[in-house]
Amino acid sequence: MGSNYLISPLTLIINTLFDLYILLVLLRFLLQAFRADFYNPVSQFIVKVTTPPLRHFRRLIPSVSGQDIASIVLCLVLIYLKFLLLRLLDIPGVPIASVTAPIGGVSYAGLLIYAFADLLALVLTVFLIAIIIQVILGWISPGQYNPIIGLINSLAEPALKPFRKILPSMGGLDLSPLFATLGILVLKMLVIPPIVYLGSF
Question: What is the pLDDT at residue 192?
């Protein structure tokens, strides 16, 4: 058996566990920033599983203008730790958006820049997925409501709102999801690669 016999499953476990928890912490920040319903059972679950580490971070990192900066710092720390663990396993690079970041040969400062790029890419992906799910749910069950739909709407609306202000009414046809999706994809292609490139030095 080759050296990848254990490395590949370990990489999968590290990526899965870290990415899931990072996503939960980021969702907590976004839902609070957009004033989502925190009495929603899904919100309560997110709060419950992310509170233990955040309790310690908030002792050192205060909120700024009502925004929970400790959540963002925790996300960056977790991404940074994930990259360090992957580097210990001799993983040469990780995908960030459409770019491969060479974590094996950069400085610790470079890893931090990669962590910022990865977090920004994740934020854009969350908006993108929320918009897609909202559109699909609008086709399948229009007008219905459940806790998950409420949170999806809370995440999608901030990305759709600027386009709804610009786009003219099309007789009941809402084209804002199409243009918002296109805008997010273009933004990922234009913004993330230069940040990754910066971290490579």
Answer: 96
